[in-house]
Amino acid sequence: NVLLTSVAVYFPLFLVLILLYETLRPRVPHVYAPENHADYPEAKQRKFLGWVPFLWRIDEAQVAEKCGLDAWVLLRFMKMGRKVALLCVLCSLALFPMYFFTAAVFEAQEQEKQRHHLSQLLPGGRGNNASVAALTSMVMIMFDEQVNATNGTSDILSSDGKVKLDVVDRLTIANVGKDDWRLYFTVLVAYMISVYVMRLLLNEYTVYRKRRHEFLMRKHPQQYSVVISDLPQAQRRPQTLQAYMDFLFPNSVHSVYIGVECAELEELLDKRQELVYHLYSANVKLAEAKAKAGEHDVIKRPKALIGRRFFGLCGGGKDVDAVDHYTEEMQKLESEIVRVRDEILQRHGEVAKDKKFDGWPSLG
């Protein structure tokens, strides 16, 4: 029995996981209960399954107040899933009897009875009359072909005429024959569940919009960062903007940071990082060549192919010393980075003339 086998396997596993969770929960509170927003007593937290009735009684307003909108939305989504699952269970209870008591099973059983009765009437297998035995076999084959051509239900019966399908198998739609009227109810239930889910989503959106507006209209919102765009030219300095924010909101602004457009600088830094890898690889190869070469041997310095066109498909290019080439390219790129950096700071009025760029850290 598939149902009993599933229960025998998964139900003990479920109990083991529950016991394991209840054993670890009070012993590892920083994992399972890092914060106690609802002020749940610690003595009740250690009780076996003591958190279940507490969570069942918790109010959504408390969740939104203590944990924010994200936790509230997650809770609402789980409740919506519970409603959909309950509807699916109710629809399944209505469809299971239709799938279980199908006409295909009863027709197959009736045809098996007729087949057994016909085999008793025909004199096959008695005596040595080969023609009678052949006639009996031919009639039985024709009867089997007729059964298979009608509804194809003979495969669900065993040799003794009993239904081979398990109870769980008979509860599925696979047990319904072709062009059966029960399929219309399956399609109707699918449409009903889809409409119900769409209706729930619309209601949840309405509730969320109302809750979000209430959250944003509070006197003291819970946002800790505010983004301001299109700042006036005179306010595009951290000190000036900090003073202006302190004037508008005394003792409320922690810090001010002005974000700048530095895509070009980021691109140059990516190129520099790639050059660092190439220069490091060239230095490693040079050190290995020095270690292998003797005192009077010529050191074979690593080479780099530059000037290739179309990934080398069209030829061209020349070999240069890799260490010298990448070192020279690194110096040029660092000068370009300094130039772009100073331009960005000048545009935002933050260049300190008495400060000097000390260069990038060395590879050693």
From TrEMBL:
Gene Ontology CC entries for this record: plasma membrane
InterPro entries listed in its UniProt record: Csc1-like, CSC1/OSCA1-like_cyt, CSC1/OSCA1-like_N
One GO molecular-function entry: calcium-activated cation channel activity
Short name of any one Pfam family annotated for the protein: PHM7_cyt
Domain (CSC1/OSCA1-like cytosolic): residue spans on this chain: 223-347
Highest taxon listed in the record's lineage: Eukaryota
Annotated keywords: Membrane, Transmembrane, Transmembrane helix
Regions that span the bilayer: 6-24, 84-106, 181-202
Keyword Transmembrane helix attributed: yes
Residue ranges of every copy of the CSC1/OSCA1-like N-terminal transmembrane domain listed in the record: 3-126
KW Transmembrane (keyword) present: yes
The protein's name: CSC1/OSCA1-like N-terminal transmembrane domain-containing protein
Organism: Phytophthora megakarya
